[in-house]
Design brief:
- This protein is α/β, with parallel strands linked by helices.
- Helices cover 39% and strands 21% of the residues.
- It is built from eleven helices and ten strands.
- An eight-stranded mixed sheet has the order 1-2-4-3-5-6-9-10, sandwiched between helices.
- Helix 10 links the parallel strand 9 and strand 10.
- Helix 1 packs across helix 11 and helix 2 crosses helix 3.
- It starts with a strand and ends with a helix.
- The relative contact order is 0.16.
Length: 307
């Protein structure tokens, strides 16, 4: 399965990306392709690579990239998580795929994982070059963040406004951890639930760690996230065929509930599949669970990105 490192032009800077090609890829023949949208804080070598490689094994061209401001991609300030720019990244990736010899620009789909699922849906609503949409444990990051504010999102926005004013006055930006860096740190603040511990053992141990993933989020990102709704206007605008893959064990990520909400709102749902026994973070790299998801995704893309 050949992999090519490419750079995607994005205005004044570039996105770092990996292009996965099917075995026997012939640039003289048109192929279907899938752009992958990865979880918040994740870089292309992590979850996206696990799925992109398997999609390529299934005969699809797959492109996974580092979001702007993160990983090996350009963009300042660093560690910004801007949901709207994450969506724009997908469209820039489609621009780049359109120019790849052997990729049929009329046969491009998207696959979003975790928060990337919401970003993929949000982008597909208005970028109808995307012909098929898949999500794996896809979430609505805005709804999740609003649910985690003890005094409500409006009060959280008030505090973020004060903090940004202080940043400007002090000349120093603030960053927050996406996750505690160790299980010990998590236990010290009372995070002992299975989802939190599985997230840490994926991202912050050799199992899934990447040197390019900082585990830091620019604090001013949170104002953008709190006002974001990944599923706004889905009923009117998401005309593409949709497949939704969920982890069977519900947890505190909200991805099961978000996936069901998306399924019910979408005007053209095709396939809903629950991976029984799997937790949210186990869908990132546990071979059996990933393979089960891929077994639904590959036929879906071949059917709805037809030659």
């Amino acid at each position: 399965m050949p992999r090519q490192h490419i750079s995607i032009p994005r205005g004044p800077f570039e996105l770092a990306a990996d292009l996965y090609l099917p075995k026997g890829f012939d640039a003289a023949q048109p192929h279907a392709a899938v752009v992958l949208s990865t979880p918040g804080s994740s870089v292309k070598e992590q979850i996206g690579a696990n799925y992109a490689a398997r999609l390529a094994d299934g005969g699809l061209v797959a492109l996974v990239f580092d979001p702007a401001h993160q990983g090996q991609s350009g963009g300042e300030p660093r560690d910004l998580e801007d949901p709207y720019r994450r969506g724009e990244d997908i469209s820039y990736a489609i621009d780049a795929l359109t120019l790849v010899p052997g990729v049929d620009p009329d046969r491009i789909g998207v696959l979003g994982i975790c928060a990337g699922g919401g970003y993929a849906v949000h982008t597909a609503r208005t970028d109808h070059r995307i012909k098929a949409v898949g999500t794996v444990v896809g979430g609505n990051i805005g709804a999740s963040f609003r649910g985690f504010t003890p005094n409500g999102p409006a009060a959280a926005l008030d505090e973020l406004a004060k903090a940004r004013t202080q940043e400007i006055l002090n000349g120093q930006v603030n960053r927050d951890n996406w996750l505690p860096d160790t299980l010990e740190e998590a236990a010290a603040i009372g995070l002992t639930d299975i989802d939190s511990t599985q997230a840490i053992t994926y991202y912050r141990t050799p199992r899934g760690h990447s040197e390019h993933s900082t585990n830091r989020r620019l604090s001013r990102s949170d104002s953008l996230i709190l006002g974001y709704d990944a599923f706004a206007h889905v009923e009117e605008l998401l005309t593409q065929p949709l497949t939704v893959i969920l982890a069977g064990r519900k947890g505190n990520t909200g991805s099961y509930e978000a996936g069901m909400q998306l399924w019910e709102k979408a005007p053209n749902p095709v396939d809903l599949y629950v991976v029984e026994g799997a937790g949210h973070y186990e869908m990132y790299d546990v071979p059996d669970y990933v393979d089960r998801a891929i077994a639904r995704l590959v036929p879906f893309y071949h059917e709805y990105l037809p030659a």
